[in-house]
Write a structure and sequence with these properties.
432 residues, alpha/beta, Rossmann fold, 2 domains, 11 strands
């Protein structure tokens, strides 16, 4: 469903953000009905050109990272460091409900886009900003990429085998979780504005969100003084069966909990471990989730379970476990299997976008379902500056002004590209 029935229909978001943490927050607002105008510098959001690994798409194809978090937006390409670019940006801001950014405060202040300046000029506008380590403190302006927040927040230290170095999680959960928190903050501020609070500043960070993601674990350490350590395939704070077990064919099963005794008995029989069905240490749901079990008992049970899971294929375990609704479990899936998961298809968790040079491809869609006023996906990722003429003239600039701004951005981009090619050429000559 599109149009007036969407929660944020009629609202405009001016996004001046790069990479993931800011753009993904604005993406949620777009899915909920807002018009999102992405203001990009002359060279564009650098993630447009990020290719990642094993990417054989044609050179110049929009990067998957950009495509993932910018679908359905409009792109305006401006040099906001010059007076005409500033004028155009303020024309857009004059009609905006939200200004959303992940630029550093110092950079924003330098070009007259700090909170105090914009709040005085647009008192009803929500000013949403997100950074790496929070708005205060010695590291408020420290540069951040996802892994830095995950490291500082403690999650990286708790990820990986007990007898090996820590591991980076397999997804950029610092950036994407930070985006979720920022979107939640924006929605809260918009509700407050509807209730008469006016515009205000919303601030969050990747570090803060890492703490949110680990509320139980951090509180446990604070309360108990425990020195928990990473435990590989098992959770650092859960003893007993809970964990990941490799299967005979190279797959793996996550066994979380067996809630009923009958299900535990059936599991033990199928696993070839009938003695565990009668073991007094595993007779209650709490015991099977690690309550009252010693570290030695836990290690014993896990050794037996590793042998049992390794004796059968993932498909065999999948077939059996599907007959046991009182067992919480899942077969581990790789990313291609996730893309093909019928459960996600049934819930419309994926959508399709058209990427020039590649065609139609899947990406994550709108994941929040509202019964009476649902949001919707809005379309493909924008080409750089595709909205310059339409959006800038609609905001009050003349066609000549918008054309001049576009030409200036094009010339800055061409100069930057020429410099890059010259540097790369000089580097190749030195290698030879």
């Amino acid at each position: 469903m599109k149009g007036r029935d969407e929660p944020l229909s009629g609202m405009t978001v001016v996004e001046m953000a790069l990479a993931v943490q800011g753009p993904a927050a604005a993406l949620y607002l777009a899915d909920m009905g807002a018009t999102v105008i992405k203001v990009e510098p002359p060279i564009g959001d650098p993630s447009r050109y990020s290719r990642g690994r094993q990417n054989d798409t044609p050179q110049g194809t929009i990067g998957p990272q950009f495509a993932a978090v910018n679908r359905g937006k409009r792109s305006v390409c401006l040099d906001v460091t010059q007076a005409d670019g500033q004028l155009a940006l303020h024309k857009l801001l004059a009609g905006a409900d939200v200004f959303l950014t992940n630029y550093r405060d110092a950079a924003l202040e330098k070009i007259g886009l700090g909170y105090d300046t914009l709040h005085a000029r647009y008192p009803d506008m929500v000013y949403a900003s997100v950074n790496g380590f929070g708005p205060l403190g010695a590291d408020a302006d420290k540069a951040m990429l996802d892994g830095a927040a995950v490291a500082r927040g403690g999650l990286a230290m708790m990820t990986g085998p007990a007898d090996a170095p820590p591991c980076v999680p397999g997804a950029i959960i610092g950036d994407t979780a930070g985006a979720m928190h920022l979107a939640l903050g924006v929605m809260t501020a918009l509700l407050a504005r509807e209730r008469g609070a006016g515009g205000q500043r919303v601030q969050t960070s990747a570090l803060g969100t890492q703490l949110w993601l680990q509320q139980w674990e951090l509180t446990h350490v604070a309360v108990t003084g425990a020195a928990l350590s990473r435990d590989g395939s098992h959770h650092p704070n859960i003893r007993g069966p809970y964990g990941i077990y490799p299967t005979a064919d190279g797959g793996a099963i996550l066994l979380a909990h067996t809630m009923e005794q009958d299900a535990w008995d059936a599991f033990c029989v199928f696993a070839g471990l009938p003695e565990l069905a009668f073991d007094p240490r595993l007779q209650t749901p709490g015991q099977r989730l690690g309550e009252g079990i010693s570290e030695e008992d836990s290690a014993e049970f896990r050794t037996k379970l590793r042998g049992a899971f390794a004796a059968r294929s993932a498909a065999e375990w999948d077939d059996f476990l599907r007959t046991q609704p009182e067992i919480i479990w899942e077969r581990l899936r790789n990313w291609q299997e996730v893309l093909d998961d019928p459960q996600s298809e049934a819930n419309d968790y994926f959508t399709e976008i058209k990427i020039p040079g590649v065609g139609v491809r899947k990406t994550v869609g709108n994941l929040v379902a509202l019964s009476e006023s649902p949001g919707s996906v809005k379309g493909d990722p924008p080409q750089l500056g595709e909205g310059n003429t339409e959006l800038l003239t609609n905001a009050g600039l003349s066609e000549a002004q918008s054309r001049a701004l576009t030409e200036h951005a094009d010339s800055v981009r061409a100069e930057a590209l020429a410099q890059l090619l010259a540097v790369n050429g000089a580097a190749r000559q030195e290698e030879q």
